[in-house]
Amino acid sequence: MSLLDVKGQTRAVTILRRIIENKSINSSFLFYGRQGIGKHLAARNMAKAINCTGIGREPWISDDTCESCKKIDGNLHPDILQITIPVPDETSQMETMVQAIAWLNTPLFEGRQKVLIVDDASELNMHAQNALLKTLEEPPPWTTIIFITSSHIRLLPTVQSRLIKVGFNRLSEEVIREVLASVTSLDSEQINDVSLFADGSIRYTAPGDIEHAITTIVTLLGEVHEPDSMVKFAEKFKAQGYKENFEQIMDIVLSFFLDALVVQKNPSLVRLRGFSDRIREFSGRFSQSAILRAAWFLEKARHAYALNVSPQMIMEQALFQLTGDSNDH
């Protein structure tokens, strides 16, 4: 694969193409955007393009057949290092950063450029980030550092100021369907179901994942009718699985709220097909303005979640928006 295979990211790929063609790769980069949209794929293929030894190709397109490309694909290239954060604790993070810095400062072994890829970079603690500052300010001339994150606001301003920022956008449903069709064995109906709730990224890889999530969340929402049941539903978000998949669950809850707004007047617009009865019952229980207020709050809460606000608190407050005028229909 090459940068040509990074789908739906024309702007980001164009930026990287120009950087490689202009040979301005002795820099540090920040690839940012939501999960599952191609940031890591772009980083790997940038590393491949920089080090590709294929003949008769454009500089920004790796040929996949040379020894360098094969080694990078197999995670065997001595001049490419990929780190995934978080590592277990503060001491481990510091040790990992110290080792990475030492690796960056050693001469090239066989490639054209050392490339350090740091996944989930926003999980680096303050000490680990500060440890990288000198290297970011004065990197060895043979090094390229790529930070990958879905929450770049958690990186220190002093770190961000030393990085070339490359933003990655949400993927269209069309691109998501195209990618899923090429990398999974899902049928067209399953691909449509997955792309409907992918919310601009490729996170679900099996239809069972999303079907189970939708059924569970819709069932729980259908039981919400007064403060005690709202608290009970919000308490589910203490569980690690709910925390880890909070954004996906928010997408389902938002779809439920929006369906509740349209189900009475235009059932054909309902997205959660198969749950119309539960949605209609919920819609009759709360006013349209209350449901809209809850949906608005939840959409705004995405930013708060990025700042580590409790998922349980976010969902609880969103549901309590329903009680303000629940009898005003």
Question: How does this model look, in words?
Answer:
With 329 residues, the protein is α/β, with parallel strands linked by helices. It has helices at 10-21, 39-51, 67-73, 90-105, 126-137, 157-160, 173-183, 188-196, 207-222, 227-235, 240-244, 246-262, 276-285, 288-306, 311-320, and strands spanning 28-32, 80-84, 114-119, 143-149, 164-167. It folds into 3 domains: 3-167, P-loop containing nucleotide triphosphate hydrolases (Rossmann fold), CATH 3.40.50; 172-205; 207-323, Zinc Finger, Delta Prime, domain 3, CATH 1.20.272. It contains 15 helices and 5 strands. The chain has a 5-stranded parallel sheet, sandwiched between helices. The longest helix is centred in the C-terminal third of the chain and has 19 residues, at 288-306. The protein starts with 9 loop residues before the first helix and ends in a 9-residue tail after the last helix.
